[in-house]
Amino acid sequence: MAESDNTSVQVALRIRPLIDNEISKGFQNILEVFPELNQVKIKSSDKAFSYNYVFDTNIDQGLFYQKCVQDMIQNLFKGYNVTILAYGQTGSGKTHSMGTAYSGQENKGVIPRAVNDIFNFIKDNFTYDFTVSVSFMELYQEVLYDLLAMKPRDQCVVEIREDAKSIIIPGLTEQPVNSASQALEYLIKGSQGRATSSTNMNAQSSRSHAIFTVNISMQKKDNR
Length: 224
Fold this sequence. Notes:
The two termini are 32 Å apart. Strands 6, 7, 8, 11 and 14 form a 5-stranded antiparallel beta sheet that branches. A 3-stranded antiparallel beta sheet has the order 2-3-4, with no helix packed on it. Strands 1-5 form a two-stranded parallel sheet. By secondary structure, the chain is α+β, with helices and mostly antiparallel strands. The chain has 6 helices and 14 strands. The chain has helices at residues 20-24, 61-68, 70-76, 94-98, 110-123, 180-192; strands at 12-14, 31-34, 39-42, 48-50, 53-55, 128-140, 143-146, 157-158, 161-162, 167-168, 175-177, 196-197, 205-206, 209-220. It has one domain: 3-Layer(aba) Sandwich (Kinesin), CATH 3.40.850. This is Chromosome-associated kinesin kif4a-related.
């Protein structure tokens, strides 16, 4: 949620570029973007759609994060839950945008950039003590896996349960972390255990839904 917008849910449309396979077959981009209106139009038609943000194929990872995600990170430290959800068909670029296949190289997606911003805020804040932990799970073929359990995959299955107040996942691993680099190490380790296979779009496409969670606890130092 951006500071200038009071809505709790915002939608960003990011258009991926055509891949080599599509270009070789003569496919063409049929979308026209109007950034000043946050609108996308289907060429040769009168069909247009508006969103909170619209990004053309040439948007880079850093600017994409800065424009539609970065302002939300500060809300974590105001006591709000923040969820960034990528939705789209297989091969549409969800893993790329979110960074759940992060390997420590450049071209970082949303999650690595958000983790860095979280720890930069903590580093510069002297009023509170912070406790941070991360968890990483994968939903694949209706089975939920704990990606940080560091066990054989068939021993990493966890269950979703519901109590009187919320949805809980008993036994899900939460790893305490003290730095961005440590949190990203768990992101890398967990990503290596995800289910992948080749598709027409990607030689190693993610075949599952994955959720990387950063849990932050704050306590004023004078409350000890």
